[in-house]
Amino acid sequence: MTKKQQSFAEAMTALEEIVRQLEQGDVPLENAIDLYKQGMELSQFCHGKLQHAEEQLISIVQETGETTAFDPLKGEN
């Protein structure tokens, strides 16, 4: 399954399994490097999904009823 077809939940499950394997410490170095790379790709994929969801969900409704994007770095003003 490619990352684009993968759901957030599937990616998180795969990432958790990679972390579990790496934490056990009995993975050969070459495999550990491959697992680390896969984990980083999954982490970036999940981060992107969360960021996209945040952009869709966070908005402010003005007094006029108009919805505007909320910039968490700038606050509500």
Write the layout of secondary structure elements.
Blueprint (H helix, E strand, L loop, with lengths): L7 H17 L4 H29 L1 E3 L5 E3 L8
Antiparallel strand pairs: 1-2
* Beta content: 5-15%
As a whole number of angstroms, the C-alpha radius of gyration is 18 Å
Count structural domains.
1
The biggest beta sheet reads: 2 strands, antiparallel
Verbal overview:
With 77 residues, the protein is mainly alpha-helical. It has one domain. 60% of the residues lie in helices and 8% in strands. It has a two-stranded antiparallel sheet. Helix 1 (8-24) runs antiparallel to helix 2 (29-57). The chain is elongated and about 60 Å long. The N and C termini lie far apart (43 Å).
Keywords:
77 residues, mainly alpha, two-stranded antiparallel ribbon, 2 strands, elongated
